[in-house]
Structures are given as structure tokens and as C-alpha cells.
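User: Could you write out the 3D structure of this protein bound to uridine-5'-diphosphate? I've included everything you need below.
Assistant: Certainly. Input first, then the structure.
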Amino acid sequence: GAGLAGATAARILAEAGKRVLVIERYRHVAGHCHDYRNEHGITVHAHGPHIFHTNNRKVWDFVNRFTEFCYYQHKVLSYVEGKFVPFPINRDTICQIFGVDIPTYEVSDFLEREVKRSKFNTPPKNFRDVVVSQVGERLYELFFKNYTIKQWERDPEELLPEVAKRIPIRTNRDDRYFSDKYQGIPKRGYTRMVENMLNHENIAVMTGVDYFEVRDVFKPELTVYTGELDRFFDYAFGKLEYRSLKLEMKTYDVEHYQPVAVVNYPNDYDWTRITEYKHFLNEKSDKTTVCFEYPLASGEPYYIVMTGDNMEKREKYMREVSKLEVSGEYLFVGRLAEYKYYNMDEAIEVSMKKVLEWIKR
Ligand code: UDP
């Protein structure tokens, strides 16, 4: 595939002198970070908002070979009790929600009192436990419970702790979504960045082609698989769940729709969040394009679902993957093929690592 995992693998193999054919099911490259400039001059992320952030210097150096990055630190507000408040929860969020004015050095004690009043399992067994053990039931219920039910359509107690670990809790006034060392948005878009990755004399790209329909035609030395894990094995151990989204794009005749790029709606409305794209690259236009995200159980597989059942099934599939990888004929990389909730930088990192090891071997 021509997403980040596939394009990274292709580039590294091409630079090692291998001839690479990329087979992409979509009619475009860049997978789910595909973007385009719309008629109003606004760069729209076709499959929902993507913000690049990493602590990995090797990954940062790698992507910087293919694009310049626009300075951007992601800010999110959450619409709670009729107000926009900073999210992830920080000192300002707490002051606004509880109507208190406390200094940074008192925030931990404040949260500790909230936690003491609350019930949860120690050590944490699930998503709810992780959040409640950090902020207590009141903040969990306002910011996390209903967003999680909307997004995953299941009880937060069925989700594994890892999902909650994506979201930091801060006692200071840092209101950024991510605290990674390197952050930004590709100046000319993710699609251009991936096109540049694939622009190498040893790489050919076929788009609009399903790998499973053509795979018998080729006898490659190595197959780098980036599609759904269960599909590769004909669902031998049962179907893995994926979540999808309905993305409703709207353009309004106003300069700005909301103060920041993303506003989360945990408790109100059916959408989980609204993204206003022009914030990412600070684009100027009289109009603005926004995207409403409605979670769906079926459709394009955007998310894996971190429940015990799915992860047990994953283990069975991954044992088969290991055997294939040991043979030296296959590598499975990326969010879909490894059934892992990777961020963009992690997809690149794992692809670099696996391919470089394969080349060495
Ligand atoms: N989450 C939440 N409230 C929020 C934002 C996130 O409860 O306002 C939970 C929710 O379960 C979500 C998970 O944290 O699926 C991960 O959030 P993230 O923003 O990383 O999701 P992504 O950007 O991958 O959709």
C-alpha cells in the first residue's frame, strides 16, 4: 500500500537497490493521511485530521527529506457544560470546571482528592480505571466517558488501558495536545510528502488495484503487506473489528468557524469532533472548511478496536505473521497489518526498522 508504512518500506528498499512495486487499493497515495487543496484554497485531510508529532529523531529526519514542515502545535478544546475548555485536562481546565483558582503546585493534591472519592480497580484493568485513577469520576464523566462510548460504541470498561494512555493529564498550563519534541504539518501536504517518498527510479506505483486480485501475477523476493491483518489469512481465526467514520465536510462563508483546529464534543451532538482545516497551515481564505466526524461500525477501516477479544485474536494472527517474517518473504507493517493503534510516526518507525533488519539479513 501507498500509506506511510508502505511508502517508507518502498523508499528504503529502493535506496538499497531493490526494485519496488507499490500496489494501492485507493486511487490516491498517502493512505489515510491523504490530503488535497479544495476550491477555497484550504488543505483538507480527506480521512480526518492528521497531525505529525514524534520524539524519534530518525523518523523526523526521514520525513524531513521529503517535505518541509509548517510550525504547528496542536490545540484542542472540549465542549463541556456549554463551554469550550482546554483538552487534555490541564490546570486551566480544572479551574474552569470546578470554578476554583489554584496554582500549579496545588493541582496534584486537588486531583488526588478527586481520585480518593472515586471507585476504580488498582492496578487499572481498563480504560475507565486508567482515567479515573488519574482525575477521578467527575472529570472522567465529563470528558471521557461519553466520548469513548460514541467513538467505540462500547462500555469504556471493555477497552484496554492502552487507549487511555494516549491522552496526558497535565497539572500545568500547557494546552498542547501532544508534547513530542518534533511537531508540524507538511507544508505542501501529506500527499505531496508521500509522492516525494515514492518518487524514486526503482519504485513503480499502481493505484486503484486490490493486492488480492493481482498477487498471483507476481513472484516477489519480498512482500511488504500493509492491508488488514485478518483478511490476509482469510479470517482463519475470525474477524477482527475495525471502526470507521463518516466524515461530513462543510464549507461556511465565514473566516473562522472555531478558535482552534479541533473541538471535541464528548457529551453533546452525535459527532465526536469538528476539525477546521485552515488552522493547520494557517491558510487564508474568506471561507472555511470544517469536518464533522461521526463514528461508524463499518466502512473504511480507520481504527483497530482494543478489547481483550480482539487482542487475543490478534495474537493468533501474529503468530502466523512471525512464521512468515522468519521465512524472509514477508513483512507486515502498519496500523492495519499489525492491528496496532499506531500514530503516523510509529508506522514509519516500525517500517524503517523491519525493512532495515530484512536488508541486513
Ligand atoms: N478521548 C476521550 N475524550 C476526548 C478525546 C479522547 O475520551 O475528548 C478518548 C477516546 O476514547 C478516544 C481516545 O481517548 O478514542 C484516544 O483519543 P485520540 O485523540 O488519541 O484519538 P484519535 O485522534 O486517534 O481519534
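The two ends are 23 Å apart (CA to CA).
User: Perfect, thank you.
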